[in-house]
Specification:
By secondary structure, this protein is of the alpha/beta class. Helices cover 35% and strands 18% of the residues.
Length: 328
């Protein structure tokens, strides 16, 4: 799959549910409505679509959401997708999770052939964690992370930079990740979704967020590339690898290799754009040919870059869709 700007698309993110047991203050409002169950793709439908995108060249799949581990019987989908990895149809199956249900599900992830997962954790202070996630229990997340590690999964911690909320959490998080051999990815907030007014007040560039880290440690740029948009650095002498995701302050769209399948079966070509094709309608009323045709159409829709800067400056241009609907 090559898009209109010559980018090779080989990575699909699937939002398996828009629901979540947390309400992170930068992700969604406290009172969030969710899709009715009939609108969700069934696991069978997801597997049909995954078969088609593999035929078109997708090599890597990440499950996300919402919180993927709150969807009922998610282990059934994980196992079915794992068979594509075992057969060599996919190079990688992975997941982004808030970690709250990892203790229970880590064995399923490992046995499906997942090698590594991203766990979101914005602070190691349990009070601050509860406040930012609006109710999350840090100890459960930590227990989940250690269970996943014990099952052989590599862990990358995702941490969003939040002005006035977690600047003081970076140094302890760096030490924690170094101690346990986890990677750490730092993320700038993106202006996605209505009703999250405090997010703009909380925006902090990673240049500012990482200043204390750079003062205390040496950061060496790494050539390492993952399938994602992060730029990597080695923090010495901590021996920690950090990735910086800077959609706002340093654009990375020219490297973009991904598309996103939403919970209700739409393929969005960019997190920051409304352009999409509706595969669920094609699947429920048409034939696989329609799906193939729509996938090719989607490639032509992929914009050259997001326009979060304009959306940040002009609230009326902001997308109503939240991160949990498209899949972060
Ligand atoms: N619930 C899972 C989790 O939190 O890891 C998966 C879905 S969540 C939408 C995926 C990632 O997006 C998380 O690391 C979260 O911190 C991040 N995220 C959510 N809203 C964001 C926003 N507006 N800007 C930047 N990152 C965001
Ligand atoms: Fe849920 Fe993840 Fe959004 Fe937090 S960031 S509310 S855990 S989907």
């Amino acid at each position: 799959m090559i898009d209109g700007f010559g980018r090779k698309i080989d990575y699909l993110r699937i939002s398996v549910t828009d629901r979540c047991n947390f309400r992170c203050s930068y992700c969604m409002p406290e009172q969030q409505s969710f899709l009715p169950h009939r609108d969700l793709l069934t696991y069978d439908e997801i597997m049909v679509l995954v078969g088609r995108v593999i035929a078109h060249g997708i090599r890597k799949v990440r499950l996300t959401g919402g919180e993927p581990l709150v969807r009922r019987d998610i282990e059934v989908l994980i196992e079915a997708l794992g068979q594509h990895v075992q057969k060599g149809n996919l190079d990688e199956l992975t997941m982004t999770t808030n970690g709250s249900r990892l203790e229970e599900f880590a064995p399923y992830l490992a046995s499906a052939g997942m090698k590594r997962i991203n766990v979101s954790m914005d602070t190691l202070d349990s009070e601050a964690f509860r406040r930012i996630s609006r109710g999350g229990d840090l100890n459960r997340v930590l227990a989940g992370i250690h269970t996943a590690r014990a099952h052989g999964l590599d862990i990358k911690i995702n941490m969003v930079a939040l002005k006035g909320e977690n600047e003081d959490a970076l140094m302890p998080m760096a030490a924690f990740c170094a101690e346990h051999g986890f990677d750490l990815t730092l993320i700038e907030t993106m202006p996605l979704g209505a009703g999250v007014s405090e997010r703009e007040e909380r925006y902090l560039s990673l240049d500012e967020f990482t200043a204390p880290l750079r003062e205390r440690y040496d950061l060496h740029p790494l050539a390492h590339k993952s399938a994602g948009p992060a730029r990597y650095w080695r923090v010495e002498p901590l021996n920690l690898r950090i990735g910086l995701i800077t959609p706002m302050s340093h654009n990375f769209c020219d490297q973009c290799n991904r598309i996103r399948l939403t919970t209700d079966g739409k393929i969005y070509m960019c997190l920051g754009s409304e352009l999409h094709v509706d595969l669920r309608t094609a699947l429920r009323s048409g034939t696989p040919c329609d799906v193939d045709h729509l996938l090719q159409t989607a490639l032509r829709l992929k914009p050259q870059r997001h326009d979060f800067e304009t959306q940040l400056a002009q609230p009326d241009l902001r997308l109503a869709r939240h991160m949990n609907a498209t899949g972060g």
